Amino acid sequence: MAHFAPMTPQPTSVLSDGTILELVESGRITIDPWDPSLVQPASIDLRLGDTFRVFDNHRISSIDLRERPANLTSEVRIAPDEAFVIHPGEFCLGRTLEWVELPDDVVARIEGKSSLGRLGLIVHATAGFCDPGWKGTLTLELNNLTRVPIKLSPGVLIAQLSFMTLDRPARRPYGSAELGSHYQGQREATESRYEGSPAVRPIG
To answer: What's the pLDDT at 35?
Structure first.
């Protein structure tokens, strides 16, 4: 019987500006609209889109994680010359202007810009990771930590996206039929599609 040595994972790395440019220009990574001037040393700046989702607090008494959330938010669309105001302590969803597509051997991480963080604007709570195979705009989890309103206008620099290589291509990239990927292909700010908790078996 033939014996095979276990595969040794190859080292992963954060992609540099030159590699980002090469992968986008070769079509391996898609950033649309594409502006090479937004590429930073190890990331690319992303701009704010024109749709937001705000929570309808007047219609809901609570969020029950045992059930799939529904009708919690309403969409707000902002004209290019308008601003969306996020008030102190307020949480809402936004989206990036850019559409992003990743191959099956690259992941990405979205982070806030330091300059905005120093103004008290948080752009993501937990949704900072993009799986290999991802296609869509990126939903932002916006939170104003200050005591003054912040105006957000479509097109402003809002976040940055860094990329990392996998040790090997994913067997089931995001969007594979068996995964039931909830957000693949999203174009607008998208509310939670959380499935709720599985049934709990009694102990004993």
So the answer is: 97
Which of 126, 110, 101 has its CA nearest to residue 48? 110
Among 153, 133, 67, 139, which residue's Cα sits nearest to residue 98? Answer: 139
- pTM of the complete model: 0.80
pLDDT at 36 over 70: yes
Residues 44 and 161: beta-carbon distance below 8 Å:
yes
Distances (CA, A) of 49 to 95, 136, 175: 5, 12, 23
Ranking 6-10, 102-106, 120-124, 132-136 by mean pLDDT, the lowest is: 6-10
Report pLDDT for 15.
Answer: 95
Cis check: omega of the bond before 33, within 30 degrees of 0: yes
Between CA 91 and CA 56 the distance in angstroms is 11
Task: Give me the long-range contacts of 115-121 (CB less than 8 A, separation at least 24).
Answer: 116/158, 119/146, 119/150, 120/144, 120/145, 120/146, 120/150, 121/86, 121/145, 121/146, 121/150
pLDDT digits (tens, 9 = 90+) for 153-199: 999 999 999 999 998 898 888 656 665 555 565 666 666 555 555 54
Q: How many CB atoms lie within 10 A of CB 148?
A: 9
CA distance 75 to 90: 15
| Dihedrals phi, psi of 38, to nearest 5 degrees | -85, -5
**Residues marked as catalytic:** 141
Burial of 2 (0-12, 13-18, 19+ CB in 10 A): exposed
